[in-house]
Design brief:
Number of strands: 13
Strand content: 15-25%
Helix content: 40-55%
Oligomer: single chain
Shape: elongated
Order of helices and strands: HHEEHEEEHHHEHEEHEEHEEE
Number of domains: 3
Structural class: alpha+beta
């Protein structure tokens, strides 16, 4: 359990940092991309307003309005662009390629005709050399299309993205390594508190056994002198009940102290049949029915005594809370693909419709709110079952269908 807390701490902290990095880097890249696109759009608009050229005749006030007061007019001459003009019949009547040298005239004509035929006023096209943003303007029966090499403008955004990814991944890896190194120290108070709690339960249990033994001996002596009475019988029942509670608490504490069970391949079907047969007479004597469907020769990776204890806990719980005249069912059947096998132990329980199934595996939880002693138990068995299933790397759950409560334990079968 402590290792799971440690791994969860590392996992959640890493996920939190990942979200922060993604948000931060994504925001920077997003802002950079938006500004680059705005810059491309502004340059294209200025080109169209000046017949596809950037020269000394450009309206300086308009340039500053679009790029901001700190923008230098000389910066406009850094862009690589070209333009193509068509008449109303779709014939090319002009071309300006004086501000770009990497694109031949034939390619410029081809790109211009492609955009003219598409009818799109704004967009981008790719050639062998680079990617170009374009914008068209129809005026006086002529259509002018200006193309701007956007690779230079987008290069800074791409560099920010690459650097951000490298720094983000490096930071995430380093942070995770640091977390792994210090996580033991971080959760040390939890480890100590959990250890002290288990030690307290174990030590208190052993200390309580001594006075209980004395009380039981004194009660037996009293019965030898005066014979059995209502009071001595009640004393004996309560002493036995308290002894079972202490034994269960000690068993649960010891189970949590064991860091790892000796798991091996076990004959699960055979063990389940053995446990079911031991409860058969008890269930039938209490005027209840037992329905069994156990597939043979199913093996799982677990611990033999622990798996037997798991079966006994589920069967005992099903018999204890089964309605009078109801049915206890045991099913152990693999799925069609033989990827998992599920142990389903159910019992009819008419009052279980509004039960809080999320609390069934908590210690001392009992669905009987009145804590009626007619239902013998302390709410520890299912908590022990959950611990065992977790140690076997399985999954346990509970569901309610057609006035029947089912406890489902899923394993991976061993072929």
């Amino acid at each position: 359990m402590i290792q799971k807390i440690r791994y969860r701490f590392i996992y959640m902290s890493t996920i939190a940092l990942f979200i922060v990095l993604v948000t931060l880097i994504g925001s920077i890249v997003g802002v950079s991309y938006y500004r680059a696109k705005q810059q491309i759009n502004n340059v294209l608009i200025i080109l169209l307003q000046n017949n596809g050229k950037i020269n000394s005749q450009i309206n300086t006030q308009n340039v500053r309005k679009r790029f901001g007061p700190t923008f230098n007019q000389e910066s406009l001459y850094q862009y690589r662009y070209f333009s193509v003009t068509f008449n109303s019949k779709g014939e090319q009547i002009a071309m300006d390629n004086s501000h770009i040298v990497s694109v031949p005239s034939r390619t410029i004509s081809s790109l211009g005709r492609q955009v003219f035929k598409s009818g799109q006023k704004i967009g981008s096209v790719r050639s062998v050399v680079s990617s170009y943003a374009y914008k068209s303007l129809k005026k006086n029966g002529k259509t002018t299309i200006v193309f701007l090499d956007q690779s230079v403008i987008m290069e800074s955004t791409n560099n920010i993205m690459k650097i951000g990814l490298i720094l983000g991944m490096t930071s995430l890896v380093l942070f995770t390594l640091i977390l792994i190194a210090v996580s033991r120290r971080v959760i040390r108070p939890i480890v100590l508190a959990d250890k002290r709690q288990r030690e307290f339960v174990t030590n208190a249990g052993h200390e309580l056994k001594t006075p209980l033994s004395i009380i039981k001996a004194n009660n037996e002596l009293q019965e030898m002198i005066t014979g059995k009475t209502e009071w001595t019988t009640s004393n004996d029942q309560q002493v036995n009940r308290l002894t079972r509670l202490i034994n269960n608490l000690i068993s649960l504490a010891r189970m949590e102290e064991e860091q790892q069970l000796n798991l091996s391949v076990i004959e699960a079907s055979e063990i389940l049949e053995r446990a079911t047969n031991s409860f058969k007479s008890v269930i039938t004597q209490e005027n209840k029915k037992l329905s069994v469907n156990i597939s043979s020769d199913i093996r799982v990776f677990a611990e033999e005594n622990g798996f037997l204890e798991l079966c006994n806990i589920l069967l005992d719980n099903a018999n204890k809370y089964c309605d009078d005249g109801g049915t206890v069912s045991v099913t152990w059947v693999p799925d069609k693909k033989l990827k998992k096998v599920t142990l389903m132990v159910g019992n009819t329980y008419a009052k279980g419709k509004n039960s809080d199934y999320n609390k069934f595996f908590e210690r001392f939880y009992r669905d009987d709110k009145s804590r009626n002693s007619a239902k013998k138990g302390f709410g520890i068995g299912l908590s022990m079952a959950a611990r065992l299933v977790d140690a076997f790397n399985g999954k346990i759950g509970v569901s309610y269908q057609k006035e029947t409560i089912y406890f489902n334990v899923t394993f991976k079968p061993v072929r």
